[in-house]
Amino acid sequence: MTEPMPVTSVWLTCQQPSRDQRRGRYVPESSSHPGKMLPNLAAHAISTYTTPGDLVFDPMCGSGTTLVEAMHLGRHGIGLDIEPRFTALAVANVALAASQGAAGSGRVVTGDATGLLDLVPASAVGQVSLVLTSPPYGRATHGLVRATSSGVRKRDHLYGDREKGNLAYGGWSRLLDGFAEILAASTLLLRPGGTVVITCRPVRRQRDDLIDLPGELLAVARSVGLVPVERCAAMLAAVRDGQIVHRASMFGLMAVRRARSGGVPVHLVAHEDVLVLRRV
Question: Which has the closest alpha carbon to 147: 259, 246, 250, 247?
Fold first, then answer.
């Protein structure tokens, strides 16, 4: 029997610039995290695949976007991250959401998500309605830039100590193997019929070497028993009167211009792939 094609849709998750989505909702220091999920993307996933009172889990929560958006939508969140300086930011963001009257709750744990079953509360096993996360892409993709008198400088593009086991520094094979471990364990937290949402994008390792990370992660998810039900596009650009209004950074624009000047037909990234899977 032929497997049905997953449903597809476009999520308008960047009608506002990312900085405006975060302003006043996250502590300013959150900008130092190199791979922040768009708040509107997280909110769309949470509101679509859960109901108030549900439990949401992010095994690589970074500065806590998943938790904050879950709290403001009346859900409860548990987040895990390997980097103590980022879990400190997540704790601060959870506290800020609580101070603003968010109806949900958030809990942050520091530790390696490949061993998450030893870190999360035992009461969470079989209770999670949504696992929402994004993989670390590495310093070539993330970071902020600013122009100076001596040229363009990049900052906040590193996750942390490469010796601590962060998947961003292990190469693509280690990233995929580690992600498989994390997904397999996360699946045990899901309630029957629970949903997994993974946001990701293709990665260009060299100027002309494009890695289909969404396709690779989809294969990993299938290998641990998850069934794909949707494949969506979450916009990283605004849509105005049928036209794309890019939100690309200066770094992104420069990278595209350099590639095109060398004859490589590169385009600006305007969306993230959203893989939606279910536990059966």
Answer: 250
